[in-house]
Amino acid sequence: MERKRELGRGERVVPGLWRLRLPLPWAGVPHCNAWAIASGAGVVLVDTGMHEPGSLAQLQLAMEQVHLRLEHVQLIACTHAHSDHWGQAATIRERAGCEFWMHPNHEHATRTASDPQLALERRLEVGRQSGVPEAALQRYLERAKHMPSGIAAVIEPDRPLLPGVQIETDLGRWEVYATPGHAPSHVCLYQRERRLLISGDHLLGRISLYYDYGWSPDPVGEFLSSLEVIERLDVRLCLSGHGKPFIDAQGHIDASRALVAERLEATRASLTGGPRRVIEIAPKVHGGELSGMNAAWWLGETLCYLTHLERLGQVRRDDGETWALEP
Ligand SMILES: [Zn+2]
Ligand SMILES: [Zn+2]
Q1: 268 SS3 class
Q2: Cα(221) to centroid of ligand 1, in Å?
């Protein structure tokens, strides 16, 4: 049955800042947010929505509702290189003739988007390391071949979005904070006087954990350090990549930390009966059965917990696939 698709929607959050709510084709994640911030005669656009048939029209529809047009975009800044946050960067840059800024550690997305074969290989590797049977991997491969990337075209940022870079807007200057973990390219943008944080997928209203496995040494450790980075800021309102803006950043930081601690503990607990493979550990960490829908996410996430515990000296990889508690 065809799910009824939502429409792009624009709304003012505070004077000079608009939320552009854009539909996504994913079950369980119905939309993502882009943010337009007044800047002189135009706007700075933070994040872009995913590229798919009709997606540019959805962005235009959301912008029209708040009297904005693509031609008003003077700068595109992306919180990270996941398709729902930078997928349309190439199209918008072309239409608006503006610059596009993003953190330079975007290889996790740009290498796989420009080389679909590599993207598949990396996913199959996660499956093999996890102990997924070869027949199931081949079935996944057949399906994955037809999955769209969500990226209009791979383009290099015109400027690296690194700490020290400032984005000037009518609301004042936004500072860049590197917040890797969810993705190696993740940054948050902070407006100090108004205490506004554009938090991307680093801090979400409804806590949800995801890490890009295999592109940095310890995504879980990086995520926990990045929570400390934003904890030092004095955030009044959090504008996240999905869901409504929310206050109580500290409560959401605490809840994110608690969920990581719970999953690390569940990972350790799953090994008390002896060595296990990731395919056996992941359902215990998530409290559910693995399926074709969640496997790529859950197995990668579980490998990240094991990698973190291995660095802490609490678990070890026995052979290619099996993990055990350190005595
Ligand atoms: Zn993301
Ligand atoms: Zn996202």
Answers
A1: helix
A2: 17
